[in-house]
Amino acid sequence: MVDDVREFERFTQMLKDDPDRAYYGFKHVSCADENLAIDTLMVTDTLFKSCDVASRKAYVALCESVKEHGGVVKVFSSLHVSGEQLSQVSGIAAVLRFPMPDDLFGLGLEDGDDDAGGFDHGNDSAEDDFYDFGAGDGGGNNRVFSAGSEPSMAEAEDFL
Questions:
Q1: Could you tell me which of 136, 54, 49, 131 has the C-alpha nearest to residue 90?
Q2: Rounded to an integer, what distance in angstroms lies between the CA atom of residue 71 and that of residue 6?
Q3: Which of 65, 108, 118, 141 gives 20 to 30 Å between its CA and that of 158?
C-alpha cells in the first residue's frame, strides 16, 4: 500500500510539474500505450469487477499490453485512500516515459469524450475532472478544474 500511495503522489506531482507525462482516462492511457509511452499504469480494482464483460476485457488487455511494452502495472484497492483518489480521476492513470502532448498524436477528444467506448468505469464523477489533492491555496480551498472549464493563464499561475 505504501508503494501505491507513493506512486499516486508521483502521478499527481507529474500532473502539476509536467502534465504531458501524466495521463488519465481510458482513451488517453490507451493512446499512450499504443505509443509505448507508459512507464507506470495505475488501475483501481473496481474496473476489473465491472458487470460489463467487454469493459473488463478492455482493461485486462490494456494492462497486459503495458506489461508487454515494459511498463509496470499497479492495481489499487478501492478500499484504500489511494484507490479512492485514483477513482476520482477515472480509475485509470499513467505516468509516461516521455512527454506526449494530447495534440501531438491527434487524440481529438472532446470534453466528456474520454471513456472506454461506453464502458461503466465504476464511478459517478466526470472522468475528465482533475482534482488537486491537498495542494490548494493553503487555506483549505482546493480547486477543481474540469476539461470543459479550463482556467485562464492567470488562474493557472495562481493555482501553481
A1: 131
A2: 17
A3: 108
3-class SS at 145? strand
130 in helix, strand or coil?
A: strand
Q: Which three cell numbers stand for residue 49?
A: 469487477
Give residue-wise pLDDT tens across range 2-30.
788 899 999 999 999 999 999 999 999 99
87-108 per-position pLDDT tens digit: 999 999 999 999 998 765 555 5
Please give the CATH topology (third level) of the domain spanning 2-127: 60s Ribosomal Protein L30; Chain: A; (3.30.1330)
Please give the distance of CA 53 from its chain centroid, rounded to a whole number. 22
* Residue 84 cell numbers, joined: 479512492
Record the pTM: 0.66
Q: Which helix (H) or strand (E) covers residue 33, if one does? A: helix 26-34
CB 114, CB 90: distance < 8 Å: yes
Residue 95 in 3-state DSSP? strand
